[in-house]
Amino acid sequence: MLDIFEKNKKQNEEYRKTAQRYYQGENTCDECGGSVNVSVYMDDYPNRDDEWLSCPHCGHKAYIRTSGIAKAEKG
Predict the structure, then answer these.
(1) 65 close to 43: Cβ distance less than 8 angstroms
(2) Which long-range contacts does 18-22 make (Cβ < 8 Å, 24+ apart)?
(3) How many domains, the chain?
(4) Structural domain span for residue 43
(5) Is the pTM of this model over 0.70?
(6) Please, are residues 66 and 45 in contact by the beta-carbon 8 Å criterion?
(7) Nearest by Cα to 42 from 74, 18, 75
C-alpha cells in the first residue's frame, strides 16, 4: 500500500515541475501562526476533492478543496 502512495507522490512532483502554476497565496497557520505559501497547480478540472497539507513550521494538518495539486512551503 505504501508503494502506491510513494508512486503518487513522485508523479505529483513531476506534474509540479511541468505544470503551469494557477494560484499562489500566503496564509497563516492556525496552530503556530507561521507564514505559509500555498501553491495550487492544474486546478482546471470539474471534480474537486480535499488535498491535505502540512504546515512546514509545526506540521499542523489542514486541507484545501481543489481539483489540482497543492503544495505548502515556508513563507
Answers:
(1) no
(2) 19/69, 22/68
(3) 1
(4) 2-74
(5) no
(6) no
(7) 18
